[in-house]
Amino acid sequence: MNISNNTKKSILSSISLVLKLAIFICLIGAATSSRLFSVIRYESIIHEFDPWFNYRATRYLVKNGFHKFLNWFDDKTWYPLGRITGGTLYPGLMTTSGAVWYLMNKIMKIQVNIRDVCVLFAPAFSGITAIFTYLFTKNCYNDDQLAGLLSAAFIAIAPGYISRSVAGSYDNEAIAITLLMSTFYLWIKAMRTGSISWACSAAISYFYMVSAWGGYVFITNLIPLHVFILLLMGRYSTKLYSAYSVWYCIGTLASMQIPFVNFQPIRSNDHMSSLGVFGLIQFFMFGDSIKSTISTKNFKIFLKFAVIGLISFGILGLFVLTYFGLIAPWTGRFYSLWDTGYAKDHIPIIASVSEHQPTAWPSFFFDTQFLIWLFPCGVFMLFMELQDEHIFIIAYSVLCSYFAGVMVRLMLTLTPIICVCAAVTLSNVFKYNLRIWSTIKKVKNKSDNRFTELCVLISKLITVLSFLGYLILFVQHCTWVTSNAYSAPSVVLLSGSTDADGSPIFIDDFREAYSWLRYNTDEDAKVAAWWDYGYQIGGFADRTTLVDNNTWNNTHIAIVGKAMSSSEERSYEILKEHDVDYVLIIFGGLLGFNGDDLNKFLWMVRIPEGIWPDEVNEQSFFTADGQFRVDAAASDTMKNCLMYKMSYHDFPGIMGNPTQSTDRVRGATIDESHVLPLKYFEEVFTTENWLVRIYKLKDLDLEGRDLGDVYDMDNTQTKKKSLKKPKLEPRIN
Amino acid sequence: MTIACSFKRFVTFYSLFVFAIAKSVLFVHDLADEDLNKYTVFTDYLSSENNYDVTIVNVKNNGVKVLSDDKQTNLFDELIFAPFTMTKIKGLTEKNIMHFYENGGNIMVMGSPKQSNNNPVRKFLNNIGIYPSPKNYVTKDFEADEETTLVLNKGELFLNNYIFNNNLRDKTVSFEESSSCLIDTNEMIFPIIRQSDYMKNFNDENIWALSNQGYLAVAFQNLNNNRVSWIGSDSVFNDDSIFEQDNYDFIKSVTKWTFQEKAMLKVLSFDHYQVANVTSDVNEDSNSEVTLSFDEEPYKVKDTVVVDLYVELLDDVDKDGNEVYNPFEADDIQFELRMIDPYYRINLSKDLNDNKRYSTGKFALPDQFGIFTFAIKYYRKGLSYIDVKDIKAIRHFAHSEYPRSYEIRNSWVYLCTVGSVIAIWIAFVIMFITTSKRVRTQTISKEKKVN
Prior knowledge:
Keywords (chain B): Endoplasmic reticulum, Membrane, Signal, Transferase, Transmembrane, Transmembrane helix
CATH architecture of the largest domain in chain B: 3-Layer(aba) Sandwich
Shape of chain A: globular
Strand content of chain B: 25-35%
Radius of gyration of chain B: 36 Å
Protein name (chain B): Dolichyl-diphosphooligosaccharide--protein glycosyltransferase subunit WBP1
Largest sheet of chain A: 5 strands, mixed
Strand order of the largest sheet of chain A: 4-3-5-9-8
CATH topology of the largest domain in chain B: Rossmann fold
Helix content of chain A: 55-70%
Number of domains of chain A: 3
Distance between the termini of chain B: 109 Å
Radius of gyration of chain A: 31 Å
GO cellular component, one term (chain B): oligosaccharyltransferase complex
Largest interface: A-B, 35 and 43 residues
GO molecular function (chain B): oligosaccharyl transferase activity
Oligomer: heterodimer
CATH class of the largest domain in chain B: Alpha Beta
Number of helices of chain B: 8
CATH superfamily of the largest domain in chain B: Class I glutamine amidotransferase (GATase) domain
Transmembrane segments (chain B): 412-433
Shape of chain B: elongated
Number of strands of chain B: 25
């Protein structure tokens, strides 16, 4: 047995390589497969709202090529304004999936439908995220492979990330988290080595991120913050200088190539910190070289003046530039990050999005389970060592913890750092406690402190076993959450009850309505619906919409809101002005579906109220004692508004009692006498469970009469009119 | 009645193959036979001179049926109502008349002071904004010797030259025992003759229409260009007075107008296209223009486009059913380019070479992208309506359609700056490298790290 040490080592290293490979394959498998619940439970379908737009855009890209996609003027949305879609989207997601599709169909000759590429896009990228998380953690934390592997395993199955990346949720975030991790990994690499090539890679990765998600601003602020803290701590080095300068210059120039970003990096306040830090680091470099040539005493004086001058110059500059409008003020979403009440008062459209609500605390546990309490431990451990790259993780976790508390959707960006920190903690726990074999050996050796060793062994065993238990529970929790909470496509609903043969019953009203629109209306018909359904109408039904989830034009949304909340006569006028043919509403009263239009109705009042306070008044929709009611006590304005009439049209009487029905969402009794007849609109379609109702605007009366009068004339009993002289207005021939 | 119906169907069916379809006209009345005989000239005019297929029905006994059972199709093309003295008529309700009208039929109504108050024809007229005077209200002319005979010879009383041409103001029409009507402000009502300032429609103390408030003949045209006419007195149709003055001419004109045989504008085509400049390859100075339709090249902002309307006017239909078209003369047809609000309104001018063509001439699209409506709406009293529109998107400039930076003179200064900075930087680097002292470096061999 002449195995030298070296051979032993090389065998071990190749075994560890094989093991690592196996682990990664398992990780990717776990990450991908747990995201396929939605396909198994439901079907291979694009989920929710935004993904429908992305999917539609991708189809356009695949059909028309990149050049046309870049200059795409979409005349099917925001009628009649239209949207320069090519210039107002982040093309990263579509181009990536388009490239994947092209690669498979045209180069590898595998026939794949673009829809399948889109559906399976997010699961595929989650595996890559896991690999980058491994690299990031390893590089950030003392090349600790165990921490890296643990973090990769966590991110692969953490519900916080899965919530946005199940099969079918074809959204920007699906690719953005991967790019977030890759950019951070490359930045850490660049910062540690000071290498221009790593910094360039970081910049390119950043560019990719910019092309994919508006959340790139987070990176634009986090990296400068990291550098700024390092500078404050006096950790300036040439490595840092070269890494940051290269990253900033190339990254910013590259990001400006995205048409939607345009000149924002040098004009918007959101990006100013990175520019400021770039300037600051130049001064540090300058100061550094001055320091090496002049005496310490002189340098101190120089420093004093320089700092005061710089700060006052910076603040003054910011004010002056903002005042003259050269740099844009902060956006509404930015303000609402600091003041959670801001949006509700000033920009109702932002507050109306459920994703922008503050997070409820249980959702932290729901999304990350036991990682959430390992997270602070990890941060603490990093504090103990406090190397340059540790500061990055600390800055990231502090910043993101706050943001995640303010906006639900930012839970997504917090999840990776929770995984990393928890992995650091666990790796430390395991590093010490997993050395059981040596402890056993020590116990076997009849040494003096055998009892202590035994105690140590037992405590190690308990720790390891309990953490193993936690890990098992974590996996179970993740699987449960994924399959039960995050796999619903929201286009198809599960009714909860089952068929006679035990198979689940699906509620497919949305698609029923959209396909009705698709097959029964003119190709250029215009459909008015609340903006939530804009993308779906465009994607499923291929019809022109007035407003959609892009929400770029508040006034246009307010117009639809005004139409929904005005009296029928006024609504008809507004909608006719915009050439609308059909109005689509969501009504959950029969089914008990909470997210219906009547529950969103107050937003349809608040948004137009912000623009036309004289015409729409929120108070008039409440009862005298300030309640929002839909039953007998509802205010007259409420009963007369279009949304109310459309929701409850023909509703009383369908549940047995001929004159009354109960609204199952609001628990209100709707009596026949509350529901006024529709005079200007006619019902054309209502889905099986009444979830979607479609109304058509009646044509103008051929004889030029008011449609309300025509209705009254047709529906009142013709009494013997005594012939009185009509009261007529004077006429000019 | 049923025989007439089936016969009419047969004729319609047969004529599809043989001649142009003769128009079927239903004359509905509740008159006694001797009264009906007064209308021979008029019915002769309809059946012989115009070659209509005239059916005369007395509603007194069996009522009348004007619609198919599902109310979707009309059994006759046109309706003429003699004044009714009955109130309830079997098969003829206000709604049925409205259905008939909206299905595409035209209706001519004779008024009379003898007419009953609650008959369906009156209700139908009230519904569209025409209020004939009630029973026993007679219009009298206080200027004339015989007050109930209205001799209408003043030019200003005739209000619509498309319906009854009195351009020269030399026509005279006389009404006897006439009723008048009031009309509401609906723009689709076209007055034909108004009362003179000295006329009054009244019954004892009750006044219905005083001087120029009241109208003796009015017409109505709905959005489908179907027409209704109401003439205040049935006397003009009677054999006794039909040849008096210009009565016959008046009746003919109104009948032709009502049955859509005159004053119908026919839009032959409405189109718009882009006029693009093409620089020929051979000679760069010579530009030639090509026209491109929207399908060939979707519009973008600032494109030069032309909107054309080809229109002609139906002036008459002769006995054999041949339509006589004439060029239409107008200088007030307006094109509108709108996106919620109008962006342009351009008057169309007539092409000197093609008398059917009206054109905007070349104009540039606005510098605003969006989905625009190209529309011409021409509603004139007496003429059929023109309402044509086309909704088309006007796209923005693609990124490659802006002029390149070096084509813009103003940018040259910036380009020079950029170029010089780059050049100076390269020069600096070269100079820095070549002039700095060489630093001797020693390579220190490092042991290869093993994992």
